Structure formats: C-alpha cells, structure tokens
Amino acid sequence: MFNRIRRLRQVAAIASISSLVAGCGVLSSDSSDEEGPIVVGTTAAPSTLDPAASWDSSWELFRNIYQTLLSYPSGSTAPEPDAAENCQFTDNTNMKYHCELREGLEFSDGHTLDAKAVKYSIDRIRKINVNGGPAGLLGSLERVQVLNDREIVFHLNKADATFPFVLATPAMSIVDPEDYPADKLREDGTIVGSGPYTLESYEEGKQAELVKNDHYDGYAERKNDAVTIRYFQDSPTMVSALRDQELDVAFRGLAADDIVDIQADDKDDLQLIEGSGTEINYLVFNPKDPMAGKTAVRKAVAQVIDRPAIAHKVYKDTVEPLYSMVPKGLTGHTAGFFDDYGDPSVNKARKLLTEAGITAPVPLTLWYTSDRYGSATKAEFEELKSQLEGSGLFEVTLKSRPWKTYVTGYQNGEYPVFGRGWFPDFPDADNFIAPFVGKQNALGTPYVTPTITDRLLPNSRAQSDRANVVKDFEDAQRILVDDARLLPLWQGRQYVAASAEVSGAERALDPSTIMMMGELYRKTSW
C-alpha cells in the first residue's frame, strides 16, 4: 500500500501501484485550456525517438506518442488490445499469433495504419538490428504475414507464451512506412505515430511538448489536453521545480534525500505516492576484460559487496537489497546470491582470489551513467569503491558518462564493469533473464549460455500457465549466480511526487512502470 498521500486520503482509497488497482478520486477531471498543460519532470530523457533503436526508458515517451497492437489499460496486469481489436494464439502450440486491427486507424498525419504498416514496423526493427536494440526481443519470431488490410499473423519459430507481452512493449510501436526508412533510423528529431498524443515540439535532453492526437483510436481515455515533459540532470533540481510550482508531477530519478524530505514535510502542498516496484539495479562484468573476465574476480566482488549498506547509507532505505536478477514479487524469484555468498566476507573473497592465483590487489574500473538513474548513482558507486578498496583486495577507478554516450560505450565493449538499471518490459521473470543473455542482448555484451537460451527459456515459454515455470527460472538463476557475470544490487520502490492539485498519478504507471500521461489531471472541485 502507499505510505503517504496527503489530502487524497480524504477522498479516495488507494491500492498498490504494483497491482495497478487504484482507488478513483471522486473529484471532477474536467480540464481547462486556460490551465495549460500538465507538466511532468523526470531524469530519464530519451536516447532516441525511433523505436527501432531503443531498449531503454525512451519507451516512456513512446508509450504516449506511438501505438502498439496491445498495451496495458489502467488497472490491467496483462496485455489488452490497443491498435488491435483482438489478438490470440490460433493453435495449441503457442506458435501462431493472430491480430485484427481496429477499423479505420490513422497515423497523426492522416496516413492509413493497416496490417502492412504493422509488418513494416516489426520487420524494420530486425532489418536495422541496432546493437543492444529491441531486435533481441524478437528471437522467437519467424515471419510476419499480412492476410488483408486488418489481419496479421505472427509465425513463431518456437512456442512463446510471452509473445503478447513483447508486442505490448513500446519497442513494437507502429510507425508510418511513408515517414520511416526501412533500412536505417529516422534521425530528424520528429515523430509520426498513432498514440494518444502527438509530439508538438522536442528539445533533446530538455523538453517534450505533447498535445492530444485527434486521430487516436485506442483504449486510453485522456484526462488532459496536453502534457509537457521536462528532463532534468538531477533530483534536487527537479524537486525544487516541483516545490516552486513549475512542475505538476516528478518521477523517475527521485533521490532518497528528496523522498525523505517530502515524507517529512507536514505541508499539504505536495503528495508522495509510494508503491512496491520491480525496478532493479545491477553490475555487468565484461568477459573480455583481463580482470573482470575472471570468474574468481567476479565472485570476490560479489563476496565483498554489502547491499544493505548501499540501501541504507545511499538510498535511505527507499530501496531494498536484491540477491537475484528476478526481483521479489515475481514467480520464480530466488535469493541465490545470498545463498552462495551470505553476508559480506573479506576472508572468503581473499580465499577465492588466492585459489585462482591472484594475490595482488585487483585493478578494476567501474563505469556509471551521470544522468540516467538519479543523482544518487554517483554516491552509490563511491560506496562500491569504498567497500571494494576497504577490503584491501581491489584498486578501483570510477568513471562516468552521460547516458547517450554511456550506451555507446558499453555496446562497444569499452567498460570492464558498468552499472545498469532495469525497468521491466513486462511483469514476468522471463524479462529479467532473457534480455541479458544470448549473443544479442540489451547490454550489447554477448553472454552465451545455451542451457538458458536453448532449453530453459524455451521450456518456460511453452507454458501459458506461468505458475508452471518456477523450476526453469530457478535453474536459470543458478547459472547466473555461478557465472556472476551479472551482479544484482537492489530492488526499487515506485515513488511519484505531485502537487496536491493533481490527481491520477496513482493510476498512471503501467506494469512496466511507464507513466501513461493521459491519466493525469488537475482537480477542479473539492
């Protein structure tokens, strides 16, 4: 349940964001053009405007401007039709997925959105095949077949019960074939979509202005006429803007200090909405690096790191320690890293290194992004450096880059060890394992593990009942623990700070924690 919702408590019962069953306010949601757009602040600026290039939180913007066949209406935890009128598997092997589009769909420029446009959009993702891009989500897709203007069939090369979830990700946004080249990315800084809003203007890294798309035909009931999204470099600046009434809502990247300050504030001008979440934060080790590529080094790092200290000292207990790549709350979660390593131990770490013939302090360079996951990231990596060097077993150098160049760096294999955060594409354990393994993955760092990619994941995807896949995910996580290529650190909660005059924030986050801007509105009566 939410910890603190000032003034809304007087008029509504709020349930957890994670269940997405939120109480509805009894207030009017009528809006006035004179009030201007809802202004939302975030520290997660898009890295691209083209869906074919993005497997990151650029999806936040995509969800509100582009349209997908399936999506998540407020309150839903499973994909439901959006651009599609209906979708379903048409065989009992989960290998043929049929969708029928809504009749008369159009892009924001008035061009027709038909089955050919859907096929074009999916095919160009695979043809362009951006390193670390969303083509990795389509590993089970064999081909796309257009039956007529409104019907399309996805033929899979293996059973995949998660395929509807993939189609619901903003990576599968439908683009206009007349505006997006088939073999390269669109890079003119504009968007043509068919989602709830159109992009009226965009200033990279600073601001996006959204207005209602009059051509939109989908599930979303927009409760405002326009939204302005402002991108910030750090949480204190963003929260200061919220307090100064320059913002209506702030989310994604709220620092622990700011969260604690808002919680402690007795004034009624702000509300803080808190719910459980499945965001995770972890380290990635480059197997080609002379030191990070050694299993003993990775396991020694895992043995030294003190997750509770990071959660308490850096994040003021607004996050919790995580000992698995699959977070708590999802079917298949384990605590393998705690089972193997237990509490931090320098002696055990030293033994691991000594047995591998490593006696001198291990030099490691840890990279983090300076502007993506909030201003606490720097403090987190400083704490990691302190812990590792405090053991006497490591000599650590810290380096950082802004997100856009940071992504290029890890995709090119430049970093020995680097930090990543992950907001789920969809709420299933599959999405906390599959994106990080295989030759083509979201990290741009090949992780060849045939047991997972060729046996365990296919086995799990053949099961429509996700309660039957626990053993497969437990086995997959055991491999991840043994390899220690990915090192989970913490699991986050969801926090949204908003003006007391704004409603809808408690309903705005979908199961992948993407904010659906249409849910936000100003209260006009009490």
UniProtKB/TrEMBL annotation:
Any one annotated GO CC term: cell envelope
Signal peptide from the UniProt entry: 1-22
Keyword NAD: no
Stored InterPro entries: Peptide/Ni-bd, SBP_5, SBP_5_dom
Cited Pfam families: SBP_bac_5
GO molecular function: peptide transmembrane transporter activity
UniProt-listed GO biological process terms: peptide transport
Main location: other
Record keywords, A-Z: Signal, Transport
Subcellular location: Cell envelope
Keyword NADP: no
Domain named Solute-binding protein family: residues: 79-442
Family: Belongs to the bacterial solute-binding protein 5 family.
The name this protein goes by in its record: Peptide-binding protein
The organism of origin for this protein: Streptomyces caeruleatus
